[in-house]
Amino acid sequence: MAGGGGVGDGGAEGGGGERAVGVLLGELQRLYREVERGTEAFNATEEQLRRRRAEVGRLDAELARARLSLHDSRGAAGRLARQQYQGSTGISPYVRLLLARDPQHALDQGHVIGRLARERAETVGRLASGERKADGLARKARAALDDQLTLAERAKKERDDVRRRLDDVEELLASLTAEQLAALAELEKKGVAQAQEKLVASGALGAPGEDRKPSKEGEQAVRYAVRQIGKPYEWGAEGPRSYDCSGLTSEAWGHAGTPIPRTSEEQWARLTRIPLTRLRPGDLVIYFPEATHVAMYLGGGKVVQAPRTGEKVKVTPIAAQPVLGAVRPDPEGKPLGRYEPPPVRQAPATDVR
Q1: What is the mean pLDDT of each run of 10 residues along the chain (353 residues)?
Q2: Residue among 208, 232, 214 nearest 340 (CA)
Q3: 208-328 has which CATH code?
Q4: Which entry of 68, 76, 156, 204 is 20 to 30 Å from 109 by CA?
Q5: CA dist., res. 168 & res. 171, Å (int)
């Protein structure tokens, strides 16, 4: 449904007016799509940044332990050096053995000396190993910190880009009259209904009424997502007060005990793909060629989703956006014997924003 084109002039009535509204809707949907693409890029960078921060913390802690161990090894090596210097006579153990009045006692002393020598060698070895480990960890920590700073800068640029695109959306909406906004909402609703009818008629969703049962985890994910209906969309949000599209789906499956990737692109790339004819509640429906939007299937050709800025989490037809495909977070999950869909309360009506 999203398309390019400039903003047209004219009213909402007549052939020319309808075309003008169509141009407006296409422009608005293009802007929304750009916002969502930027949002998912930001989410992906934030996820990388989160992992890198954890890696930096882990390396810092390991480096601190290595330095403490190195400090202890250096202290032990220093004590051995002082003992060796203070106990040195300049006479080799062999000469002392020949000159000893009690050769057996000298031999016993030789064993002690040998053991001390081995301990010294082990201490020196630990010292050298500790120095190598500390140096290696310091290099890794510096590299991880550099990566963290790079990712933080990228996230800032992506966040600023999303805000600029949101400003473009707000500017376009502010330029429209109440009649134009109403016409846009009606035209979008009509387009969704036509797309849904076409999808159902094609048999892509399987036979009518052929709804499958979810797995136990899928049911939990569905119930979580449905409980969020009415909460506002907010880009980059993962709940509990607001969500973006992939924030809703990832949190729902996380609460079901099955962590999934944070972004819609990663959900599409890493989760098991299934045909639409095999959809069951809890499966994820991915939208647009770039996989920049995601919703959760409820059954009966409906999904629950966090649609876009200005709207709330709600239930829509599956064809509310152009469908790319579907994925299943728990491909090994067995369907429930009995399933009672959760009651769904629809979110308050919103306009095209």
Answers
A1: 36 52 76 80 81 77 69 58 53 49 55 56 60 73 79 80 81 83 86 91 80 93 97 92 96 97 95 95 95 95 93 95 95 94 73 48
A2: 214
A3: 3.90.1720.10
A4: 76
A5: 5
DSSP 238: B
Fold of 14-172: Helix Hairpins (1.10.287)
Closest by CA to 189, choosing from 351, 16, 309, 3, is 351
Cα three-residue angle 153-154-155, rounded to 5 degrees: 90
Considering the entire predicted model, what is its pTM? 0.67
**Residue entry with tokens 């999934």:** 260
Q: What are phi and psi of 155, to 5 degrees?
A: -60, -40
What's the token pair of residue 76?
């032990």
Distant-in-sequence, close-in-space partners of 300: CB < 8 Å, separation ≥ 6: 211
Q: Collapsing DSSP states into helix, strand and coil, what is residue 245?
A: helix
CA separation, residue 199 to residues 28, 276, 302, 316 (Å) = 24, 10, 12, 14
Contacts of 103 (CB under 8 A, 6+ apart): 97
